[in-house]
Amino acid sequence: MFSKSSSHKPSAVLRHFPKNALPIIAILRGIPHKDVTAVAETLIEAGITLIEVTLNTEAALASIELIAKEYSNQATIGAGTVLSSDSVKNVHRAGGTFIVSPNTHPEVIKQTKNLKMVSIPGAFTPTEIMTALNYQADLVKIFPASLMKPQGIRTLKSILPPHVRLVATGSIIIPDYNTHATTSTHSTHSTTPTSHASSPSIPPNHPNEETIYGYLQAGCWGIGLGNTLYNPTLTLDQLKENAKHAVAAVRTQLSAANYKRHPNWD
Predict the structure, then answer these.
(1) Using CA atoms, how far apart are residues 252 and 249, in angstroms rounded to an integer?
(2) Are the C-beta atoms of residues 107 and 133 closer than 8 Å to each other?
(3) Is 64 part of any domain?
């Protein structure tokens, strides 16, 4: 059993994450270098401004450098699948400002913090999460979330320090906006889906479903979206549609009257 008290204190500011940024990390795995600008622009226009390029992608560092320079005033760019301290240095040189890993590697976390970047190691067990916190990780990626599920995260949260910020990642389902918009207006007997311009006012109360709603309702700080948001076979229009659904779901959950946003965003 782990105590809810911890010597780890969250960083006062996630320096590179603007307060108004939605807690969605877009994961670009396998993205062709020639497409990265258009994809980043599509995500930013939809409202997703935390963008990760995984290092097991061809020309990943060049892609990070390109969009970090192009969109430095509009988005926060980082790297995923970072497995060594040398890779952290390379990402820093390319202009990335946050580091995501699939595992909890103390040397990667320490190098990330030494370079004043945001540290987001991957973890699955209480031992791994507490190790990440003890090395001063800013956020902890729960991976694969598809195995943990919202119920597992809710159980984890019951024994972890209250300030822990978890990012659920791995096969997170993006709920269909139009379906939920229709459901949310059911009391008025409307069958016309609401426009994408506004979110449904009441998120569905399905705390155990493996969707954006389910993981946020389980207590996650944010969501990492990979293949359910982007994959290299999608057109920009398809990506735009996925991004709109994701943004609508997160905004709806964050604005819900019964939902408390994590107190340590700042």
Answers:
(1) 5
(2) no
(3) yes
Inside any domain, residue 4: no
Percent of the chain with pLDDT over 90: 73
Residue 141 bridge partners (DSSP): 122, 167
Q: Yes or no: say if 62 and 71 are a contact pair by the CB < 8 Å rule.
A: no
**CATH number for the domain that contains residue 200:** 3.20.20.70
Task: Give the tens place of pLDDT for each residue, 154-168.
Answer: 999 999 998 899 999
Domain count for the chain, please give it.
1
